[in-house]
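Researcher: Re-running this chain for the archive, since the previous output was lost when a drive failed. Same request as before.
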Amino acid sequence: MKKKYRIKQAKEFEEIIKNGNCIKNKFYVIHFKKSKFDYDRYGISVSKKLGNSVFRNHYKRKIREIINNYKKNYINGRDYIIILRKGAISQPHQSLEFEFNKMMKKINEGKSKNEEKKIFKNNNYPTNNLYNNRLYKDSNG
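Model: Regenerated structure tokens:
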């Protein structure tokens, strides 16, 4: 993966995790946010709790390989932070690949839970009591 497609700075990681959307399964947690670039960028994180540096780098290479094989399917100008979970350790490469692609399809279809919550919050549904009391009085006379 070329350097321009990588996210390396801690500030960028924090900003995407804090302000972006998130989707999870038993293998990955993927945080994503609309990017200021025309191309996708990826940051990969494997916790020290999962293993030593050789182990972590091995899984980062696996994830980079999966991204390189399928990134043409998902070009949409987003930044992604991919965090490997403990459940992915004992799994074969094919299942990691399948789950990653399934999650990326969900993201591109807009089916993450956080996106749904934000869409619901942004619709101007009246929730204050004054409005509800007025409706109740009008309907009851």
